[in-house]
Amino acid sequence: xxxxxxxxxxxxxxxxxxxxxxxxxxxxxxxxxxxxxxxxxxxxxxxxxxxxxxxxxxxxxxxxxxxxxxxxxxxxxxxxxxxxxxxxxxxxxxxxxxxxxxxxxxxxxxxxxxxxxxxxxxxxxxxxxxxxxxxxxxxxxxxxxxxxxxxxxxxxxxxxxxxxxxxxxxxxxxxxxxxxxxxxxxxxxxxxxxxxxxxxxxxxxxxxxxxxxxxxxxxxxxxxxxxxxxxxxxxxxxxxxxxxxxxxxxxxxxxxxxxxxx
Length: 262
Ligand SMILES: NC(=O)c1ccc[n+]([C@@H]2O[C@H](COP(=O)([O-])OP(=O)(O)OC[C@H]3O[C@@H](n4cnc5c(N)ncnc54)[C@H](OP(=O)(O)O)[C@@H]3O)[C@@H](O)[C@H]2O)c1
Hints:
- By secondary structure, this protein is of the alpha/beta class.
- The protein has helices at about 5-10, 25-35, 45-60, 75-85, 110-135, 160-180, 195-205, 205-215, 230-235; strands at about 15, 40-45, 60-65, 90-95, 140-145, 185-190, 245-250.
- The longest helix has 28 residues, at about 110-135.
């Protein structure tokens, strides 16, 4: 076996990826399948799930669809139970499903607050808890959480989203500490501004915001979902066997700071 295969192969692994019907989750799903995993492709919209599975199968990979509208403990538990039954177990859980409602704190409604908390944070907690017994049975369990730059810093205009993603950082560290004894590694990816349906509306479609990003991001552009998959693969693979409780920013240098140089 080549060193590349020893470190990065996911052959024989079973991965449940939430929010794999679109954007970042779809790219991770296709990547994991190409690396050899059988992938549970979760989303809410069957036709989008089917498109991810089509892309996986086109590359010779294997995938199973899961439809679930996340937001409660019960839905999280049912999704994990179904995935474990249909995949034959769970070695890798990627908590990627998420949404945003961009508005200043003063305009946030109770519905905005409850929706973001339920989808971005509470569901992730219950998914992790439900997946734990299955991850324990794996020879090396992996949890990969999708955080955000707001896991690590403040960004005005999305206060509740930022709260949920900051808490994902705390959850990542806590579970890493509690589950290290079970050989389960828990890590978090913190994407910068990545071009997906979530950011197309309201960010990349707004010339003023694009101008701001081109100025503020050292690499002078937003990222693509494909630019996250290297780190996502690292954190699901044997290459990260001694890496846990960490948050990895993939942000074109945004969090490194700012500079007055061109
Ligand atoms: N794009 C960025 O710049 C960026 C930056 C930082 C962090 N993130 C995070 O990355 C993750 C993926 O975002 P994305 O940019 O790839 O967005 P996206 O293309 O809109 O994908 C979001 C995914 O989450 C699923 N989802 C949303 N609400 C759900 C619910 N209530 N129940 C179940 N699934 C639900 C969607 O399923 P359906 O489409 O089937 O409804 C979709 O698969 C999110 O956690 C987001 O916060 C994104």
